[in-house]
C-alpha cells in the first residue's frame, strides 16, 4: 500500500529555531504539494513541484520558508527562523499527474513556543 | 487565481438524515473537483471526484453534482452514520503547467446517533 511518508510527525521547538520537515512522495508520482492547515485558514498551498521543479510558491512567506526537492524521493520544507504563528499541521501530498487525486501524508504537527 | 468557497462551515444531522455541502469556484477553466474527508487527527483522503464533462457521480451513499454554468458543486451524503462525522473539503483544479488544487475551508459534519 503506497503512501506518502512525512517526518517528523510532531515537532515542538522554540521561537527562532530552524525547523526542517521531510516528505517522501509515492514512487512514480511527479507532482508534490506542501499545504499548511490551521483552524482559521483551512488548507493553504505553500509550494508545488512538478518533476522536481518548483512551479508555485506564492503562498509561502519567502523570508523564512523554503522548499526544495533534492531528488525524486525527498521533498523538504524549512522554516528559519520559526515563529509561534507558524504553529500548524503541515501536509505533503503527491500525485501521479497534474489535475488528478492528491495523496496526503500523515502531516507534521509543528508547535513553536 | 482560483477561489473556492464552501458552506456551511459546520453541519449537524441526526443519524439517517441526509447531508449536503456546497462549494462555488471562481475560475471557469477549472475542470476537476475532488472531495476529501478528514477524520480527527488523520490525513485528508479522497472520497469522490467529478470532472467537468459529467453533471453527477454516485458511489453508494455519496454523490456529487456539478453545475458548470453556475460554477458550483455539491456533496450529498444519504443515510448518514456516526462514522461519517469528519471534516469535508472540496477542491478545484484545472489543466495547465501551473495547475494546483485549491481547497475550500472545510465543513465539519457531526452525525448524532
Features of this protein?
heterodimer; A: 113 residues; mainly beta; seven-stranded mixed beta sheet; 0% helix; globular; B: 113 residues; six-stranded mixed beta sheet; five-stranded antiparallel beta sheet; 54% strand
Describe this entry's structure for a reader:
The complex is a heterodimer of chains A (about 110) and B (about 110). Chain A has about 110 residues and is mainly beta. In chain A, about 0% of the residues lie in helices and about 55% in strands. In chain A, a hairpin with a 2-residue loop joins strand 7 (about 65-70) and strand 8 (about 75-80). Chain A is globular and about 35 Å long. Chain A starts with a strand and ends with a strand. The model of chain A has no long low-confidence stretch (mean pLDDT about 95). With about 110 residues, chain B is mainly β. Chain B is about 0% helix and about 55% strand. In chain B, strands 2, 4, 5, 9, 10 and 11 form a 6-stranded mixed β-sheet that branches. Chain B has a 5-stranded antiparallel β-sheet with strand order 1-3-8-7-6, with no helix packed on it.
Short structural description:
The complex is a heterodimer of chains A (113) and B (113). Chain A has 113 residues and is mainly β.
- DSSP, total strands of chain B: 11
- Quote the average pLDDT of chain A: 94
**Main β-sheet description of chain B:** 6 strands, mixed
Task: Report on the biggest sheet of chain A.
Answer: 7 strands, mixed
Distance between the termini of chain B: 41 Å
- Straight-line N-to-C gap of chain A: 36 Å
The average pLDDT score of chain B comes to: 95
**Total helical elements of chain B:** 0
Protein topology:
The complex is a heterodimer of chains A (113) and B (113).
Chain A: E1 5-7, E2 10-13, E3 19-24, E4 31-38, E5 42-50, E6 53-56, E7 65-71, E8 74-79, E9 88-95, E10 103-104, E11 108-112
Parallel strand pairs in A: 2-11
Antiparallel strand pairs in A: 1-3, 3-8, 4-5, 4-9, 5-6, 7-8, 9-10, 9-11
Chain B: E1 4-7, E2 10-14, E3 19-25, E4 32-38, E5 45-51, E6 56-59, E7 62-67, E8 72-77, E9 86-92, E10 102-103, E11 107-112
Parallel strand pairs in B: 2-11
Antiparallel strand pairs in B: 1-3, 3-8, 4-5, 4-9, 6-7, 7-8, 9-10, 9-11
Amino acid at each position: 500500500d503506497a503512501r506518502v511518508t512525512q517526518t517528523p510527525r510532531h515537532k515542538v521547538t522554540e521561537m527562532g529555531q530552524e525547523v526542517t520537515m521531510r516528505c517522501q512522495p509515492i514512487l512514480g508520482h511527479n507532482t508534490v504539494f506542501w499545504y499548511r492547515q490551521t483552524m482559521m485558514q483551512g488548507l493553504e498551498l505553500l509550494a508545488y513541484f512538478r518533476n522536481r521543479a518548483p512551479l508555485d510558491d506564492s503562498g509561502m512567506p519567502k523570508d523564512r520558508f523554503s522548499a526544495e526537492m533534492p531528488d525524486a524521493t525527498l521533498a523538504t520544507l524549512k522554516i528559519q527562523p520559526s515563529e509561534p504563528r507558524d504553529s500548524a499541521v503541515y501536509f505533503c501530498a503527491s500525485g501521479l499527474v497534474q489535475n488528478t487525486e492528491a495523496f496526503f501524508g500523515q502531516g507534521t504537527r509543528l508547535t513553536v513556543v | 487565481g482560483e477561489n473556492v468557497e464552501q458552506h456551511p462551515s459546520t453541519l449537524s444531522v441526526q443519524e439517517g438524515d441526509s447531508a449536503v455541502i456546497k462549494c462555488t469556484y471562481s475560475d471557469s477553466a477549472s475542470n476537476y473537483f475532488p472531495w476529501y474527508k478528514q477524520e480527527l487527527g488523520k490525513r485528508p483522503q479522497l472520497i469522490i471526484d467529478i470532472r467537468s464533462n459529467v453533471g453527477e457521480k454516485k458511489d453508494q451513499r455519496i454523490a456529487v453534482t456539478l453545475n458548470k454554468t453556475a460554477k458550483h458543486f455539491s456533496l450529498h451524503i444519504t443515510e448518514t452514520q456516526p462514522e461519517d462525522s469528519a471534516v469535508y473539503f472540496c477542491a478545484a483544479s484545472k489543466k495547465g503547467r501551473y495547475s494546483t488544487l485549491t481547497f475550500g475551508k472545510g465543513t465539519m459534519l457531526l452525525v448524532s446517533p
